[in-house]
Amino acid sequence: MNLESLFEPFSYGGLSLKNRFVMAPMTRSKSPKGIPTGEVADYYARRAASDVGLILTEGTVIDRPSSKNHPDIPNFYGEALNGWEKVVQDVHANGGEIAPQIWHVGNTTIPGITMPDPMEGPETMSVEDIEDSIKKFAESAAAAKRLGFDCLELHGAHGYLIDQFFWTGTNKRTDEYGGDTIVKRNKFALEVIKAVRAAVGKDMVIIMRLSQWKQQDYTVKLAQNPAEMEQWLQPMVEAGVDIFHCSQRRFWEPEFEGSDLNFAGWAKKITGQPTITVGSVGLSGDFLGSFAGQGAEKNNNLDELTRRYERGDFDLIAVGRAILQDFEWVKKMKEGKVEELREFTAESLAQYY
Question: Which residue segments constitute the domains of the chain, with CATH numbers given?
Answer without folding.
Answer: 4-352 (3.20.20.70)
